[in-house]
């Protein structure tokens, strides 16, 4: 019971940290949210909590942006695709059976690319701002416009920090966290 409370506290701190860092670095967003989605899928055994952590981090940051800045935190249906992409990344993390440098780097890079494809495809399909024509060229333009927003560096840095810390803390006991 005590370990479960500690795990919940760690999850809450991660969510709050991710939300505040996303807001503080906006619009260039050096955020750990994608890394948290991957990390949660790999190490959190409670599937509800593993899916909830990145969603709560994203929601908290969007809420802070909406309430305390001039930037809209909630900007349209395209945003739903970003939340869905986090769910896919969390589920993708279930496939990582062993934590090592190569797997963490590979899964992190793949998560960045997965988020890019899912979020930009959703933006094209929903396109509530009428930015792209409903053509193949419109889709290519939408995908090209998203390239500068791929976050390889933050995702790699935060994946290294999260997984590295996890391995250091739990190196004698590499079971999934029982949160």
Give a structural overview:
By secondary structure, the chain is an all-alpha fold. The chain contains 7 helices and no strands. It has helices at residues 2-24, 33-43, 47-68, 78-93, 101-126, 136-146, 152-169. Helix 2 runs parallel beside helix 4 and helix 4 packs antiparallel against helix 5 (101-126).
The second-level CATH architecture is Orthogonal Bundle
Oligomer: single chain
Largest sheet: none
Helical fraction: over 70%
- Number of structurally distinct domains: 1
Please give the number of β-strands.
0
Order of helices and strands: HHHHHHH
Rg, alpha carbons: 17 Å
Global geometry:
globular
Mean pLDDT over the full residue set: 88
Count of DSSP H/I helices: 7
Low-confidence spans? none
Structural class: mainly alpha
Q: Look up the CATH topology.
A: Arp2/3 complex 21 kDa subunit ARPC3
In the CATH scheme, the class would be Mainly Alpha
The CA-CA distance between the termini, in Å, is 10 Å
Strand percentage lies at under 5%
Quick recap:
This protein is mainly alpha-helical.
Search tags:
about 180 residues, about 0% strand, Arp2/3 complex 21 kDa subunit ARPC3, mainly alpha
SSE order and pairing:
Blueprint: H1 2-24, H2 33-43, H3 47-68, H4 78-93, H5 101-126, H6 136-146, H7 152-169
Helix pairs in contact: 1-3, 2-3, 2-4, 2-7, 3-4, 4-5, 5-6, 5-7
